[in-house]
Amino acid sequence: MESKHHTIRDLFRDILKRYRRQTVYVVSLMVMCGFAEGLGIMTMMPFVRMLTDPSGSEGDRFTYYLQKALGGLGIELNVGVLLSLITMLLVLKSLFVVAGNVKAGYSASRVSKDFRSELISTLMKTKYNTFLDMPLGTFSNALTTETRMVLNTYKQYCLMLSTGIQGLFYLGLALLVSWPVTLASVFIGALLILSLGRFVAAARKAGKLQATLMRSISVRLTDGIYCIKTLKAMGQEDTLSPVLQRSAEELRLNENRIVRIEAGLVALQEPIIVIALGIGLFVGIQHFGMRFEALIVLALLFWRTAQMIAKTQNMYQRLSTTEGYYWSVRNLIDRLQSTEEYSKGTQLPHFRSSIELVNVGFNYGKLHLYDSVNLRISKGAYVALIGPSGAGKTTLADICIGLLAPTTGKVLVDGVSVKELNLQAWRKKVGYVQQESHFLFSTVADNVSLLDPAITEEDIKEALQLAGAWEFVSQLPGEIHASIGENAGKLSGGQRQRLAIARALARKPEVLVLDEATTALDPKTEAAICDTIQNLKGRVTIIAISHQKALVDIADKVYRVEKGQPIREALPVT
């Protein structure tokens, strides 16, 4: 799937645009954690001075302001007060850490859920033919693996911002203690940290490849499982296995590459921190004659600053590894949104007189099927469409119910353009039986009702009886509550087709589309279905695509569809 190039800056902007409030809340909690810890470290300076210099020589500016603040509260500055203050600040820091981590986790879950919800919502609104151009594994991978990685991306994003700000805060405190020493250490550390930039670039490249490989293996596995019966029946499962094994090996090698990058980054950061810390302390001792307590506090601040910088860089590297998943889901949503249903109509359909095609033409890409089709189907009529395979019979039926939009011309329902109708409301009046029906991995009841709570058990049983399916369903353990396996694999071809017909009839449709609905049925069952259709004539508008003589013979009108030819009324086949 083609996608535009995105940078880390694009990721920052996109997350802030969509989740500004949650992000500011999480980052604020984590920054308060650094603030509490930083004050605790600074408070150690007067604490150590009082222990090592009880005579009370002149203190630093921080001690002066602290003493003044406590004095305003009527509290005398002493070792006990300072120890209590340090303890309180560190406890406060722990509380902020817990609150920040919990909020970060909750917010990340919300982000992941939002992505899933938006993807599901967009999937349901997109044009039907969009699904013909994309492998099913793309959607399942996006809804599971990739949205899970979006959660990790957001958490790394929040933590990276938090640690970066905390590092700057510790650096500011270090500047208060001794700005010359701090600047010297920062300069050396910055040069060394920048030298690790290639690790981040490599991690970003490996992360994008990881997202692509995960999507690829998911697509191949989904396609393979979908065809597993055919593969095993012809002894071809060994052709699928090497393909999946190669993809798994590529994933392993790329994961190893990410591990090496992370290990290299962590291994080099520690000596960099030690070098910068050593240089800073050396400068402080040799050139500025810093007091013992100031050196201790400065060393702690340096260490925490360096840790925050190292954590920020590690998280930036991890963010670079996972951002590919974020953009993969985002690009898929954008692509689906660009192919939403053409109609934005709101008018509710009533269907009182007819469905009419006026000068309708249709192309599948560069493939031209027909143009200037004019066809009127009266309410309650039974119309059969016949013709050679590939002529566009199913496409014509799909255009009638608004599943496909015509390339030219228009579709009218009671004289109103389908574009002005609420498409979902119009399709709720339709029962549809595909030539190759697909089923849920669930029970007979769920497959007939399609999980619609408005369809009762009585409706389900009635539909099964009308479709000639009750005879075999009543023999199943649990009857309508029996599981039918993956894509109804526990049923025969004829049983599957009868179940599909029952599913269409359970909705009590006003329009019934039958696409080769009786092809897999035995003559007895086909005759029973024909009797059901005869009883529906006049009450339900029926559009049947069929080569079966029994179905065509009972039609009110028969139309022959041939590619590139005008549609004409034909005599029933004999």
Question: Could you characterize the architecture of this molecule?
Answer:
The protein has 17 helices and 10 strands. The longest helix has 52 residues, at 237-288. The protein has 574 residues and is an alpha/beta fold. Helices cover 63% and strands 10% of the residues. The model has no long low-confidence stretch (mean pLDDT 81).
Give the terminus-to-terminus CA distance. Answer: 49 Å
Order of helices and strands: HHHHHHHHHEEEHEEHEHHHHEHEHEE
Spatial order of strands in the largest sheet = 6-7-8-3-9-10
The CATH homologous superfamily of the largest domain: ABC transporter type 1, transmembrane domain
CATH architecture of the largest domain: Up-down Bundle
Q: Give a quick account of the main beta sheet: strands, pairing sense, barrel closure.
A: 6 strands, mixed
| Poorly predicted ranges | none
Helix content: 55-70%
Structural class: alpha/beta
Cα-atom radius of gyration: 35 Å
- What's the assembly state of these chains? single chain
Q: Remind me, CATH topology of the largest domain?
A: ABC transporter transmembrane region fold
| Domain tally | 2
Number of H/I helices = 17
What's the mean pLDDT score? 81
**What's the β-strand tally?**
10
Overall morphology: elongated
What is the highest CATH level, the class of the largest domain? Mainly Alpha
Task: Estimate the strand proportion.
Answer: 5-15%
